[in-house]
Amino acid sequence: MNLQTTDLLLLADEETVPGKTKIPPRKPKWYDTFNYIANPDRFCHENLKKYGPIFKTSVFDGTTVFVGSARTNKMAFNGDNKYTEIVLPATTMEMFGEYSLFQRPDLHTQRKTALASGLTGATLAGYIPHINNIIYQGIKTWGSKKIQLYPAVEKISFNILTPLLLGISLKDSDPTTFEGLPISSKAELKALYKNYFDGFYGLLKWKSPLTAYGRGIKARAKLIDFMGKVIKVRLEKGRSINPTQDFLSMMLVSQQKKPDGIFSDILIKNQCLLQLWASHYEISGFVSSLIYQLGKYPQILQRLRQEQEQILGENNNISQFSPEHLKQMIFLEATLKETLRTLPPSPTASRQLTKSVVLDGILYKKGWTLIAEPRIAHIMPEHFEQPEKFKPERFLPEFNEGQMYKFIPFGGGVHSCLGAQMAMVISKVFASHLLRMFEWKIIGEPKFVQFPIKKITDDYQIEIQRKTKN
Ligand code: HEM
Fold first, then answer.
1. CA–CA gap between residue 79 and residue 364 (Å, rounded)
2. Going from the N-terminus, what domains does the chain have, and what CATH number goes with each?
3. Pairing between β-strand 356-359 and β-strand 145-148 as defined by DSSP bridges
4. Does 274 sit in the ligand 1 pocket, CB within 6 Å?
5. Ligand 1 geometric centre to CA of 198 (Å)
6. Which residues, other chains included, contact 414 with Cβ-Cβ below 8 Å and sequence gap of 6+?
7. What pLDDT sits at residue 2?
8. Integer angstrom CA distances of residue 5 from 25, 75, 201, 263
């Protein structure tokens, strides 16, 4: 895929649009937002079929152009500081806080580069024993019964992520783990996050305890206070901090080395708040969708189990994974990607054009918003053969589908997801344990919550059966 910047014509204000330039098809309709939110899969599918992968709508106000082809996705992802900006309502920006990666495009690269070292590469590899242990301890308690899929997965994700990101292991049975913190149970922290989460999508942007937004803003303030206390407790312990132990440690050590650098106190607190928020909901949604998809396709389960046996042997007691083991799980990786293709957890980039641009003879006008949608890109026959089929093989090297900008569950370009590697590691370890310890059956079809993150509704149950004694 080669999109030179010269392919993209940036127009100065008042500059004449070249002859024969077209505008994207479809007239925006007043009810587009309602239809999109009610059923985004159907909205994308029907419009793709009728108009192709680029079409105009009025989703979220103004003119919003949905795009799905690799070239237009690339255009949408890489316009920062040149022809696009992230425009979110002021109220949403307030929920993110000034120190999110979205707020200051001028500082974005510098901040992102600094944060990456706490979430990727060797540091992430060092997290694997912890990830493994928590997942193993968590699913060991599942037994043989019906479980509510999403809440069961979410509980484990939370226990994985609080130590990895904040360096704390909260245990309701041990009050000392809450010492110095303004909460006394995990449920309290989760409730704050839930209010924060709901606050983003409250319709009434009025700061009152009567509105979801008001409660969200209040929860945000309490979460920032909580993060501040976590940091205080850590620093008071006085021990030297190992920067690879968790995400917070990485930031604290960087701050100690360079007190006037990127990692100010408020940036650290805000990043702790946001990363736990994003990762916890995204990973829980993803892993529960994976378990559901595998329950639907027994022949894929069988192939995955064979792969597990080849890599880990028949020893079901194995409780250690090396990064090397994970790398060898090629079919599992392909299955994870196929889950992300078919049930992408996140709608992706939404960017407003600060200049008019022309790409491939189509005009995208200044002021319009571009939405690069995985729900379009992932079902285009030009990107994926027989897209309606659940076929992990497509991601194996011999088929080589899922190239950059065609497969976009983690976005792409300058804002691509910083936690993608972590999400893949956690879900691989999760799946590996499940495959070796359990049989499971889905019970009927789930309903999905679609926004802001696609997830199976809390009441959906699956039946699980313990295979072996682990
Ligand atoms: C299955 C799991 C996940 C999915 C599907 C996902 C999806 C995404 C998407 C689509 C974007 C791009 C948003 C845009 O362009 O507007 C993004 C950005 C981001 N994600 Fe994730 N994410 C996941 C897990 C995580 C985790 C585990 C973390 C951190 C611990 C994380 C941290 C971030 C950050 C920091 C950004 C912003 C990058 C930037 O603005 O430069 N994500 N994610």
1. 13
2. 5-167+245-466 (1.10.630.10)
3. unpaired
4. no
5. 18
6. 77, 78, 80, 108, 109
7. 39
8. 24, 9, 36, 34
- d(CA 460, CA 148) in angstroms, rounded, equals 6
Which residues, 6 or more positions from 290, have their beta carbon under 8 angstroms from its beta carbon? 335, 336, 339, 427, 430, 431
Q: Please state the pTM of the whole predicted model.
A: 0.95
Listing DSSP states for 220-271 in one string gives HHHHHHHHHHHHHHHHHT-PPP-TTS-HHHHHHHHHHH-TTSS--HHHHHHH
Q: Which residue has 């030179």 as its token pair?
A: 4
Tell me the angle at which helices 212-236 and 247-257 cross, rounded to the nearest 10 degrees: 60
Would you say 135 and 428 are in contact if contact means Cβ atoms under 8 Å apart? no
Q: Is the CB of 290 under 6 A from ligand 1?
A: no
Q: What is the mean pLDDT of each run of 10 residues along the chain (470 residues)?
A: 64 92 97 92 97 96 95 95 86 85 84 92 93 94 92 96 96 96 96 90 80 94 97 89 93 93 93 92 97 96 95 71 91 98 88 96 97 97 98 96 97 93 96 94 94 91 83
pLDDT at 172: 95
Please report, for residues 114, 121, 250, 369, 453, the alpha-carbon distance to residue 117 in angstroms, rounded to integers and kept in the order given: 6, 7, 8, 32, 26
Output the pLDDT for position 199. Answer: 87
Give CA–CA dist 46/112, Å, rounded: 37
Cα 13 to chain centroid distance, Å, stands at 36
What does each C-alpha distance from 345 to 82, 87, 269 come to in angstroms? Answer: 28, 21, 26
The reported pLDDT for the residue numbered 347 is: 77
Cross-strand partners of 9? 358
- Residues in Cβ contact with 315 at an 8 Å cutoff, skipping those fewer than 6 apart: none
What the block records as the tokens of 180 is 């110095």
Q: Which protein residue has the closest C-alpha to ligand 1 atom 28?
A: 419
Q: Residue 105 in contact with residue 406, Cβ under 8 Å?
A: no
Task: From residue 188, give the alpha-carbon distance in Å to each of 182, 197, 219, 376.
Answer: 10, 14, 11, 38
pLDDT at 319: 65
Q: Report the residue among 164, 410, 453 best suited for mutation to probe ligand 1: largest number of ligand atoms under 8 A from its CB.
A: 410
Which of these, 162, 157, 151, lies nearest to 135 by C-alpha position?
157
Ligand 1 atom with the shortest distance to the CA of 351: 16
User: Which tokens go with 359?
Assistant: 């790409």
